[in-house]
Amino acid sequence: MKIQKKLLGIVSVLTVAVVGAPFAYGDGTASSKLSQAINAGVLTTSIRDSSGAVVASPSFSMNAATASTSVQTVTGTFGSDSQRITVDNPGGANSGWTLSIAGTAGAAEVWTTGGGTPHTYPFNGTSTTGQLTLDPSVATLTVVSGTATNVTKGTSAAFSGSTPITLLTASSSAEPVWNGYVTGVGVSQVIPASTPVGTYTINLTQTATAS
Asked: Where would I find the beta strands (DSSP E) of 44-184?
């Protein structure tokens, strides 16, 4: 006789009920507004080297000449890679600007050997008494910030009286935040006949003016 034993499992189910009001989440955000003013800088010009540093005492040499009883002309270049004629306009001249150059002493400026009894001759005279000509049209314009649009080089001109010569002009349509430089401005000087032997220098000052 076989005896079979049947085991029945008993399963208990526990139900837990939580009674109460639902939890409400509050609004945990806040709004803030930041403001920042970018003010216009000042229009400036300088002579800078290839690293961007200002050259303290820039100088440029003309080709050498030999003393002569006749009128002669010597040539040279104003502006090089190590001495860049630079304009920086950080929004200071929104209506355009002009870069010009003139004798530091105005019409009274001269080529001079210096010293106690200097030899001199004019830079703003005539084609026989002594006249300095600059030609920015042959120069190279390099733009560092902005574009060359509406920035133009000046034309060849000879100094007369105290009138400056224009190297660059930016119209009112040029970009208001701009930086660039010029190299290779053509230079020629008429030396009067019978000018004494010596090393002659002249001081010129460049100016950036807002339109």
From this structure: 44-48, 72-78, 84-90, 97-103, 110-112, 120-122, 131-135, 140-145, 151-153, 157-158, 165-170, 177-183
